[in-house]
């Protein structure tokens, strides 16, 4: 059994290509997605930092504007200029409270203290400086940073305070801003921001941090990193980052973090830093994992389908070749190409053998010229030149043609193979040729399977007959087969030799009319023709066929030829005339039999004409009566043709469709529809375009194909019986004739398609 090795290799190759392209496509898609994600993420991070800066700067700006307003407030000015005046202190506290209430959504508060006084005024209550700083979570070091006048620098502090309601700590960012108020007096404006309200919220799903940096230190840091990463972040040298921060966005990176930096527009000494985890390939893969896997699965599935489909299409010519070559033998071997190579080699050898055989049997130019001469294919003006060219000057004039055939050709075919018969014919022709050329110049030519031809340069027919009879007698005595020779009428020149050849062939056809003799001459046949009737079996069959098929003109031409030959050209005796009449009536009887017509009815209807034919009172009356009888017979057939219209043939076809699984025959159809088998056969072909047997076999094959589609494992023997074939081998030959392959191969193809 042949394995589809090439198909498997082809499929694997396409699968490898598809897999490679799939992986390339997925990697490219992944890379592009990664680039897109990185770009979007970087843009989002930049937007986040810039928006955060704008929001924080807005809050700072509002607080600084409020400080500017407070500096112009009368009560604040008087508080700064005078010693402790509790009325002014109270009014200043109210002013702070009013301003704070107006901007409460910004989440900050402003307190006031003098540079030379420990009193601190807040929107809620006034207290001394030390207690205030303790409440604010400020240390002694923070206190020491405060100066004594407006020339002191702005101080930024970060403090942690416990809330009164819970034990949690709240982180505040404190800005101590010294300002000159009034004439020569300074106040400290202490602005406190709640870190939670000042800094942007961080996503709980990602690790990130936001910080405010001042002079290389953290003012505040808000982080969602784990402890390990937060320690790494705190240990990072901020001075380098702070130095590189500008009012424009800037990004710096190391192995662990991406630092997004921008400087505050409101507090130039502040830098805002947004810290994110360094983006990696794994980070880009994670959000696209499902999409990537889905894309990979889709591409692999489509690739498998594509590879299989393309492999099938690419394999189809090879499979077709294998199917064609199966007729030379059952496939076997490692793969298809091994089988095709072996089969092609065997075909090549067979072709070489055929070429060799054709070359051996190819006619020489000399023999081809002689063959063309016999068939009248050589132009008369070229005959002499070609005779000289082929050194055949001896055949220029007074020529006779002799055709020799085996007398018992059918018996020879039953006893010997074709090769053996050809060998016998060759040796026989050579023996006769050797004996004839002793007496007169002659050329030997092969004619067909059982005949060979001599072109003899001699016009004496009796001399040729004697020499032939002597040579043939020696062969017949030595061997168990007989020979018959026919000698045509001599011709004057080589250009007329085709007439002698045609006459010799005609003599062989009519040899039964001559008394048994091995060599028949044209003279003997002429004598017999004048005293014997002419009614060849082949001509009778031709006449019957034309009549039954309704070919009126052809039938009448054949009949007139017979009547003219026997009743006008020949001189028949009364006995021979009666014999001819009986043969004509026998022909009519055969036609009636084949048409399944009632013989008695025909006799009664045409009794007068039949009497004339039987008694033969005169040749003229016989010609008229015979022509009338055949004309009446054809009229009857025309009537039957009118009866057998298309509907009748359709009913016959329906009968075939209903009974194809039986051992159906033409006789059964004829009996069913009351026609003769011969007539049914001809009428069926005339109306349907196909003969009965071909139509039945084709329909059986179609039904067998349908059964194989429905029953996958059916055996060939059972299938043959189901469609009306009793012999499985006959069914296989029939199936191969119409489908080009055996039933088993067709079933295998069906299974492969599914």
Automatic annotation (TrEMBL):
The chain crosses the membrane at residues 12-31, 291-310. The keyword 4Fe-4S does not apply. This is HTH araC/xylS-type domain-containing protein. It comes from Paenibacillus odorifer. Keywords: DNA-binding, Membrane, Transcription, Transcription regulation, Transmembrane, Transmembrane helix. Residues 144-163 are annotated as: Disordered. Residues 650-749 form the HTH araC/xylS-type domain. It comes from the Bacteria. Residues 147-163 have a biased composition (Polar residues). The keyword Transmembrane applies. PANTHER family: ARAC-FAMILY TRANSCRIPTIONAL REGULATOR, HTH-TYPE TRANSCRIPTIONAL REGULATOR EXSA. The lineage of its organism: Bacteria, Bacillati, Bacillota, Bacilli, Bacillales. InterPro entries: Homeodomain-like_sf, HTH_AraC.
């Amino acid at each position: 059994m042949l394995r589809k090795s090439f198909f498997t290799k082809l499929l694997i190759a396409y699968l490898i290509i598809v897999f490679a392209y799939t992986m390339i496509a997925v990697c490219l898609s992944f890379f592009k997605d990664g680039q897109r994600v990185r770009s979007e993420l970087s843009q989002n991070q930049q937007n986040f930092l810039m928006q955060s800066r704008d929001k924080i700067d807005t809050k700072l700006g509002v607080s600084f504007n409020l400080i500017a307003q407070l500096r112009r407030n009368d009560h604040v000015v008087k508080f700064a200029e005078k010693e402790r005046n509790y009325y002014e202190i109270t009014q200043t506290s109210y002013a702070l409270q009013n301003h704070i209430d107006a901007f409460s959504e910004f989440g900050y508060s402003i307190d006031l203290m003098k540079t030379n006084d420990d009193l601190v005024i807040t929107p809620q209550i006034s207290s001394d400086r030390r207690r205030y700083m303790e409440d604010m979570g400020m240390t002694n070091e923070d206190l020491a940073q405060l100066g004594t006048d407006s020339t002191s620098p702005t101080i930024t502090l970060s403090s942690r305070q416990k809330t009164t309601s819970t034990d949690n700590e709240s982180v505040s960012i404190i800005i101590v801003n010294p300002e000159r108020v009034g004439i020569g007096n300074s106040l400290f404006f202490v602005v406190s921001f709640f870190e939670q309200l000042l800094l942007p919220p961080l996503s709980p799903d990602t690790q990130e941090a936001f910080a405010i940096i001042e002079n290389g230190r953290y003012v505040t840091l808000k982080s969602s990193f784990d402890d390990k990463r937060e320690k790494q972040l705190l240990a990072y040298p901020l001075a380098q980052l702070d130095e590189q921060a500008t009012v424009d966005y800037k990004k710096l990176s190391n192995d662990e973090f991406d630092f997004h930096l921008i400087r505050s527009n409101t507090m130039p000494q502040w830098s805002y830093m947004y810290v994110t985890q360094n983006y990696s390939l794994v980070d880009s893969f994670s959000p696209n994992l499902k999409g990537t896997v889905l894309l990979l699965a889709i591409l692999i599935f489509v690739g498998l389908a594509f590879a299989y489909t393309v492999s099938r299409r690419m394999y189809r010519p090879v499979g077709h070749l294998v199917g064609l070559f199966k007729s030379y033998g059952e496939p076997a071997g490692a793969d298809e190409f091994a089988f095709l190579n072996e089969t092609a080699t065997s075909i090549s050898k067979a072709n070489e053998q055929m070429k060799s055989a054709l070359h051996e049997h190819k006619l020489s130019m000399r023999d081809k010229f002689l063959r063309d001469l016999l068939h009248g294919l050589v132009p008369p003006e070229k005959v002499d030149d070609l005779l000289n060219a082929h050194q055949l000057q001896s055949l220029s004039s007074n020529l006779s043609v002799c055709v020799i055939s085996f007398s018992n050709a059918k018996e020879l075919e039953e006893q010997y193979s074709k090769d053996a018969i050809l060998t016998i014919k060759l040796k026989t022709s050579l023996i006769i040729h050797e004996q004839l050329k002793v007496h007169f110049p002659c050329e030997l030519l092969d004619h067909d399977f059982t005949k060979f031809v001599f072109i003899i340069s001699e016009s004496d027919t009796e001399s040729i007959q004697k020499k032939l009879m002597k040579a043939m007698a020696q062969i017949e005595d030595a061997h168990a087969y007989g020979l018959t020779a026919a000698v045509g009428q001599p011709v004057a020149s080589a250009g007329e030799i085709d007439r002698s050849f045609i006459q010799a062939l005609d003599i062989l056809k009519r040899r039964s009319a001559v008394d048994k003799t091995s060599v028949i001459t044209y003279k003997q046949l002429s004598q017999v023709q004048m005293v014997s009737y002419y009614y060849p079996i082949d001509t009778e069959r031709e006449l019957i066929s034309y009549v039954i098929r309704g070919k009126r003109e052809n039938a009448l031409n054949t009949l007139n030829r017979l009547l003219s030959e026997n009743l006008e050209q020949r001189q028949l005796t009364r006995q021979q005339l009666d014999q001819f009449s009986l043969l004509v009536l026998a022909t009519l009887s055969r036609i009636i039999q084949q048409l399944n017509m009632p013989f008695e009815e025909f006799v009664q209807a045409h009794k007068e004409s039949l009497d004339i034919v039987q008694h033969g009172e005169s040749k003229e009356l016989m010609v008229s009566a015979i022509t009338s009888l055949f004309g009446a017979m054809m009229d009857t057939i025309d009537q039957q043709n009118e009866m057998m219209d298309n509907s009748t043939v359709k009913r016959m076809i329906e009968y075939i469709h209903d009974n194809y699984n039986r051992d159906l025959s033409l006789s059964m159809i004829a009996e069913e529809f009351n026609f003769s088998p011969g007539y049914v056969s001809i009428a069926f072909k005339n109306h349907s375009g196909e003969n009965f047997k071909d139509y039945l076999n084709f329909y059986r094959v179609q039904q067998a194909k349908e059964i194989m589609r429905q029953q996958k494992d059916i055996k060939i023997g059972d299938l043959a019986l189901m469609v009306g074939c009793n012999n499985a081998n006959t069914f296989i030959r029939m199936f191969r004739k119409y489908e080009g392959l055996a039933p088993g191969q067709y079933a295998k193809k069906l299974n492969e398609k599914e």
